[in-house]
């Protein structure tokens, strides 16, 4: 080692030692923020009893809460898994119909493991966050391919694709009676109010402390029911803005409720701390609904071109109409030039050269909001007749890099498409039927009241 490198090595070694010390300190760190301590033994017993008694009487009748015999634990685990994945970022009422259809098609994990991603995406269409569906399928295939059957402990469940700490805790406690906690948004709200925790729930240390509190409370004899009772309370009585404290089974143990009674300037809804969400970034997209007529066969309608999105990233592996993301908001001429270039490179479609343009019209625009993106979509309908037929599509490099298909309107209307793609197609249907489509600035497309198009 040269002399010049020795000081650098020494500095790097000190940095490593410092990081190691910080990590050890964090592991031993007591409850922090404004979480002073754990629940007392007396509080814990009262909360367990109160929550379970309340849950036994007030639990909602939900399709994934069917009781199963000891011999059907794996079936129960699969049902919990599917329901918990569907319920992430989605309301219970929305999930119920999806869950019933899913279980009718794939009643066991072995049935699901035989499905294709396209079938799963079609079943999932409209629920959003499509990566959840892909991970659910991959996880099912992983479990079925394994030699040990369905994992029955939280630690082993977390090794399955798409199963994190929360989902593992839910499956393990509800299906296999393991005394492990679950912490989701509803549970955080209940715990934050029970202990009057004003620390930022998104903070790493605070989040870990919520898991400690939840672990302490889990009833060892009925862990699944207790975990569900916490989630149920947060979803019903202990709501974000209008908690029903007078009906709450643990209001006498609730520090936030006690403080609000002592001081009218304090409200139960002050807990947990509201975290300001980052503003979604804005982007712009021009969508071209490309309809290809086959006049030789005297068809009354054409076939629509769909492109499959890349297998990684936003809406991975899903079908959509040809589209181009723009760097900034652009006028009609710029958008059309961008689409023309894409059609030429991807499909070998060049208006006036490789095809005859039957019609080309702008249908309108709308805004679709993803988790972190606010996307403005400009929609046009391009109807063409190809001079060489569909066999001339995808000449050159695009054939190797782009997955596409042509489908008729009958197939298109039954496919599992994202809500944004369905909105685009609704605009096409409305245009063809002479209905007006008004531009809107939300997740909805306004269509003339003459007829509602779903």
Automatic annotation (TrEMBL):
One of its GO terms (molecular function) is oxidized purine DNA binding. InterPro entries: HhH-GPD_domain, MIG/MutY, MutY_C. Residues 7-22 have a biased composition (Basic and acidic residues). Residues 86-236 form the HhH-GPD domain. Its EC number is 3.2.2.31. Residues 23-39 have a biased composition (Acidic residues). Belongs to the Nth/MutY family. Keywords: 4Fe-4S, DNA damage, DNA repair, Glycosidase, Hydrolase, Iron, Iron-sulfur, Metal-binding, Nucleus. GO terms for biological process: base-excision repair; mismatch repair. Residues 1-39 are annotated as: Disordered. Its cofactor is [4Fe-4S] cluster. One of its GO terms (cellular component) is nucleus. The keyword RNA-binding does not apply. It comes from the Eukaryota. It holds the Pfam family HhH-GPD. It is found in: Nucleus. It catalyses: Hydrolyzes free adenine bases from 7,8-dihydro-8-oxoguanine:adenine mismatched double-stranded DNA, leaving an apurinic site. The lineage of its organism: Eukaryota, Viridiplantae, Streptophyta, Embryophyta, Tracheophyta. This is Adenine DNA glycosylase. Involved in oxidative DNA damage repair. Initiates repair of A*oxoG to C*G by removing the inappropriately paired adenine base from the DNA backbone. Possesses both adenine and 2-OH-A DNA glycosylase activities.
């Amino acid at each position: 080692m040269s002399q010049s490198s020795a000081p650098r090595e020494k500095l790097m070694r000190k940095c490593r030692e410092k990081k190691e010390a910080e990590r050890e300190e964090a592991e031993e760190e007591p409850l922090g923020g404004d979480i002073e301590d754990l629940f007392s033994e007396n509080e814990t017993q009262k909360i367990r009893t109160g929550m379970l008694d309340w849950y036994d009487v007030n639990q909602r009748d939900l399709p994934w809460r069917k009781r199963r015999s000891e011999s059907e634990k794996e079936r129960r685990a699969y049902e919990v898994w599917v329901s918990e994945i569907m319920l992430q970022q989605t309301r219970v009422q929305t999930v119920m119909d999806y869950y019933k259809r899913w279980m009718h098609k794939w009643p066991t994990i072995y049935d699901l493991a035989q499905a294709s991603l396209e079938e799963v995406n079609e079943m999932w269409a409209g629920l959003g966050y499509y990566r959840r569906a892909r991970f659910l399928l991959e996880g099912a295939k992983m479990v079925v391919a394994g030699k040990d059957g369905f994992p029955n402990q939280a630690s082993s469940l977390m090794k399955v694709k798409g199963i994190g700490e929360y989902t593992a805790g839910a499956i393990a406690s509800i299906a296999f009676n393991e005394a492990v906690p679950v912490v989701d948004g509803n549970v955080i709200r209940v715990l934050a109010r029970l202990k009057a925790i004003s620390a930022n729930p998104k903070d790493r240390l605070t989040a870990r402390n919520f898991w400690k509190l939840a672990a302490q409370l889990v009833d060892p004899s009925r862990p699944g029911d207790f975990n569900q009772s916490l989630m149920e309370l947060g979803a019903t009585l202990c709501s974000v803005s209008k908690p029903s404290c007078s009906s709450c089974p643990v209001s006498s143990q609730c520090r936030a409720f006690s403080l609000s009674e002592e001081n009218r300037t304090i409200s139960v809804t002050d807990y947990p701390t509201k975290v300001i969400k980052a503003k979604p970034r804005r982007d712009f997209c021009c969508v071209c609904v490309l309809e290809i007529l086959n006049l030789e066969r005297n068809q009354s309608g054409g076939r629509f071109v769909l492109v499959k999105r890349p297998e990684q990233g936003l809406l991975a592996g899903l079908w959509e109409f040809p589209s181009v993301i723009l760097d900034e908001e652009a006028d009609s001429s710029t958008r059309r030039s961008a689409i023309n270039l894409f059609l030429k490179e991807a499909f070998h479609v060049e208006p006036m050269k490789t095809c005859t343009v039957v019609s080309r019209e702008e249908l309108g625009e709308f805004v679709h909001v993803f988790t972190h993106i606010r996307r403005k979509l400009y929609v046009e309908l391009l109807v063409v007749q190809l001079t060489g037929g569909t066999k001339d599509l995808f000449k050159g490099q695009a054939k190797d890099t782009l997955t596409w298909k042509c489908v008729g309107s009958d197939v298109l209307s039954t496919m599992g498409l994202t809500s944004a793609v369905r909105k685009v197609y609704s605009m096409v249907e409305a245009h063809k039927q002479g209905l007006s489509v008004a531009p809107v600035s939300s997740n909805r497309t306004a269509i003339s009241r003459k007829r509602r198009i779903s």
